Amino acid sequence: MKRFTRKRLFFIVLLVIFLLLDSRVIWKAMYPVYFKQQIFSSASRYHVDPYLVMAIIQIESKFDQRRVSRKGAVGLMQLMPSTAKWVIKQANFSSMAEEYLDEPDTNISIGTWYISYLYDMFDRNSYAVIAAYNAGPGNVKRWIAQGVWDGRGDTISNIPFGETRHYIQRVEYYKERYSKIYQDEYNKP
């Protein structure tokens, strides 16, 4: 009788584990997102995929709003101060935005506007946008113009910067994860 009970208990535990692994609660614990309201709001305002913004934040700062890179990139979206200053001017953000670059609302808003700008620049090609966010739009334009890379996901191995190739793969991975896990929370306008 003990043997039957142990087997039964074992299968029940396996069933519970299986059911929990397919639970959004578990997935949300494994892939937490902070500042969702700010992300969804900025994504909606600038017509950008919120899951792309989440993925970039994850890769850039792991949702640490106080992160500053060795090169001087600031905040959740790791914005270079010179890029942020340019965006603030182009998008008519308040001149005070530069002083609050490490604040989530400001950083996400500026970073999301910049992604929208890159989408326009690269004809809505998300691979080129992600590459440009990492390597700079000048590099990506040059690679495409010179035929080094055609901007497609299946040819990212042609990108000359290993960091950028890996960056695109990581961002795409997290974007897919976040879209599956948090799709029920985003109400498209």
Can you walk me through this structure?
The chain has 189 residues and is mainly alpha-helical. It folds into two domains: 1-30; 36-185, Lysozyme, CATH 1.10.530.10. It is built from nine helices and no strands. Helix 4 packs across helix 9 and helix 7 (126-135) crosses helix 9 (162-182). The longest helix has 21 residues, at 162-182. The termini are far apart. The mean pLDDT is 92.
The number of distinct helices, counting runs of at least 4 residues, comes to 9
Structural class call reads mainly alpha
Characterize the largest beta sheet: strand count, sense, and whether it forms a barrel: none
Radius of gyration: 20 Å
Summary, kept brief:
The chain has about 190 residues and is mainly α. The chain has helices at about 1-20, 25-30, 35-45, 50-60, 80-90, 105-120, 125-135, 135-145, 160-180. The chain folds into two domains: about 1-30; about 35-185, Lysozyme (Orthogonal Bundle).
